[in-house]
From TrEMBL:
InterPro entries: Cys_alpha_HP_mot_SF, Cyt_c_oxidase_Cu-chaperone. This is Cytochrome c oxidase copper chaperone. It comes from Gossypium davidsonii (Davidson's cotton). One of its GO terms (molecular function) is copper ion binding. Keywords: Chaperone, Copper, Disulfide bond, Metal-binding, Mitochondrion. The keyword Metal-binding applies. The lineage of its organism: Eukaryota, Viridiplantae, Streptophyta, Embryophyta, Tracheophyta.
């Protein structure tokens, strides 16, 4: 009976430990790399941004430009 609580607590503690280790990994720079190339990330916001810029000019499309930047940051890019 004494072994069961130890096994349960260690399994419950593992996700927390993994999260702590993962939060420390991005400082190394190796694990924080995006999984996609920047040209292939966020195709929806990229299309809207590009169409707006072509039709209205960059100054009129700040909303779409920022939306694309937010999406890229969520993918792990520093923009």
């Amino acid at each position: 009976m004494g072994g069961l609580p130890t096994q349960n607590t260690s399994t419950l503690a593992l996700p927390g430990l993994q999260q702590n280790q993962e939060s420390a990994k991005p400082t190394t720079g190796v694990e924080s790399k995006p999984k996609k190339k920047i040209c292939c990330a966020c195709p929806e916001t990229k299309k809207l941004r590009d169409e707006c810029i072509v039709q209205h000019g960059e100054e009129a499309c700040a909303k779409w430009i920022e939306a694309h930047r937010i999406c890229l940051r969520a993918e792990g890019f520093n923009v």
